[in-house]
Amino acid sequence: MDYAVIVALEMIRAVAWLVLLAAGLAIIFGMMRVINFAHGEFLMLGGYTVVVSTGAGVNEWFAILVLAPLVVGIFGVIVERLVIRQLYGRMLDSLLATWGLSMLMIGGVTLIFGNTVQGVATPFGGVRIGSYQMPVYNFVLIFFAAAILLAVWAVLKFTRVGLIARATMQNPNMAEALGIRTTWVYMATFGIGSAVTGLAGGLLAPVTGVVPTMGASLVGQSFITVITGGAAVITGTLSSATVLGSISQATTFWAGPVYGDAALLVVALILLRILPQGITGRIFKRAL
Amino acid sequence: MEKPLTRDPGFWIMVGIGLALLVLGPIFIDMFTIMQITQYVVLSVFALSLAYIWGFGGILSFGQAAFFGLGAYTFAVSSISIGDTTLPLVLSFAIPAAFGVALGYFMFYGKLSDVYLGVVTMVVTLIFWKLANHTAGPEYSIAGVRLGGFNGIPSIPTINFPGQPDAWLDPAQLFRFFMAVLVVVYVVLRILIASDFGRISIGIRENETRAALLGYDIRRHKVIVFALGSGIAGLSGAMWATYQSFIDPNAFSMEMSAKALIWVMAGGVGTLLGPILGVIGLQWLTLKLGMMELLNSLVVLGAIMMVLVLALPKGLVPTVKSACLAGWALWRRGRGVSASAKKVTSDD
Q1: Is residue B342 part of a domain?
Q2: Which of A205, A246, B210, B293 could connect to A47 by a Cys-Cys bridge, CB 3.0–4.6 Å?
């Protein structure tokens, strides 16, 4: 019984983990059809923001929930202005350029902070479930994954900003004809996507530790989740995170974390063979 | 429309330069430089693998390092356990090519778009890298050869004469052998590109729908192109492994894939000469900049990549070529104008 609860909670945690890793990327991909190859390094930047600011005596929660999204969001806006904007409509070029950015960021951060793992204290202790122990922080991760998805859904569905965003997503030319500055929408989207990524990076920092190359070990999961999900931000991320998260967690229980990743890829490849546009390319087509 | 290959002077010049280097290089150039050039030769084969599938097949693979590393590990394991290097060289082409067929099947028969293709190939590389790093324990061994995790596999044998495991090639012979491989790969690719098969590839690159409507099976075609590129990348990985006599999971690194992309981008997509020049230029540049110790190689690579995409999207060789052609046309027109001006005066 206890074991069943633990397994179920671990499954949910794995799903939440993928949601956190992928949400920012999914927002950008869903709106702009741009894949940010420096996504992993944006996560890393969020992590470093937390490390540096807590080192300077800032409250850890303030650093995770406010500073990390803020710093990475602003960085995202700058990147959009200087790089992404030049390459609209040239998707492959934007992949290459952001890949260059990713290497530049890894190299730059290594120069500044050195190639060592910096730990962040994990808040809260563990909680006993029967004869098993589970970190309370897992519930924090699950909570924020749900909160991010809910917030994005509510903004897209109920606010005027969300309406403009959805209009631009569906038909940028028509939106422009109706007086919407789509370039601003794209800039805001990239900024918000980056901010969400920064928040995720801050939240994951206590679990993964922070190191310049941390992006490379996380980014694969983000990419797989987003392309398997397809273009719809909420439904896509949630459905693919659920499928992939539970399968990879099951494999991890059975064979270890590295094989969990490999299983993720194999499942994603098979899914993409059947549904080339991702899950929401065929099913839940009109969902958000 | 296009000249047949045998009448293309550029082709014969390239082959001539390659053969001249092969024969005369070790005679006139000192051994240290030869070993340095050997490295360029190996990486040039790797660059050609991507130059072919990207430039002449329209397949932008972000995971060429996956096949490079697979070839390197295949060679390392099989040559150590067999003792002779002839069969391992064949295997290091065949196994990555077979893996390329498998991956290509999922990607091309699933009709993944360009962006998805890039992401999938990249993720495959990342997972190989993770798996290879994870194989530290003694339980991870193939045919008695431990994979060694992030420590890699040491003491990989040098190439030997077929059937004579003790007759290793000396550095000059190794250089000649690798140079011969490079020339053969170049010639095979040129012949392939000039053949009907190559024309169809280029047609697919230009317009997939049109090629499909003309009755070509673009999916099967792309799988073949991709697998061939994978095999060549694997072969270059094997050459790298024996050249260094050591291989570690960094063969699978993103940096390796990125380097291949940068060589091709710098040299120009759609040429075979350009990427080779890209290898020479970029390796030389990273060597010089690496000595400064101020910047690490990732910063340099990242900056070059961004500049290439943003400022020189066509690459160096095509840019210089079109600049030369424009200059040539201008010069011709200048002469033409003066000639016609003379004509006008004589008419008067």
Answers
A1: no
A2: A205
Alpha-helical runs (H) found in chain B: 9-28, 31-55, 64-82, 86-109, 114-133, 171-194, 196-206, 208-213, 218-244, 254-267, 273-292, 297-311, 316-347
Q: Cα(A191)–Cα(A145) distance, rounded to whole angstroms?
A: 19
- Contact call for B106 and A270, based on CB within 8 A: yes
CA distance A240 to chain B (A): 15
What is the number of structural domains in chain B? Answer: 1
Q: Do A104 and B303 touch (CB under 8 A)?
A: yes
DSSP state of A126: E
Contacts of A108 in chain B (CB under 8 A): 299
Q: Is residue B345 part of a domain?
A: no
For the question of an ipTM over 0.90, the answer is no
Element (H, E) at A128: strand A126-129
Q: pLDDT for A60-115, tens place per residue?
A: 888 888 999 999 999 999 999 998 888 887 788 888 899 899 989 998 898 888 88
In a domain, residue B76? The reply is: yes
B290 CB-near residues (< 8 Å, 6+ apart): B297
The range of the structural domain enclosing residue B112 comes to: 5-336
Note whether residue B346 is domain-resident: no
d(CA A255, nearest CA chain B) in Å: 13
What integer pLDDT is reported at residue A198 of this predicted model? 94
pLDDT digits (tens, 9 = 90+) for A199-257: 999 999 888 888 888 888 888 889 889 888 887 888 888 889 998 888 888 888 787 77
Cα distance between residue A65 and residue A99, in whole Å = 27
Query: From CA A204, how far away is CA A210, in angstroms rounded?
Result: 9
Strands A132-135 and A126-129, sheet pairing: antiparallel
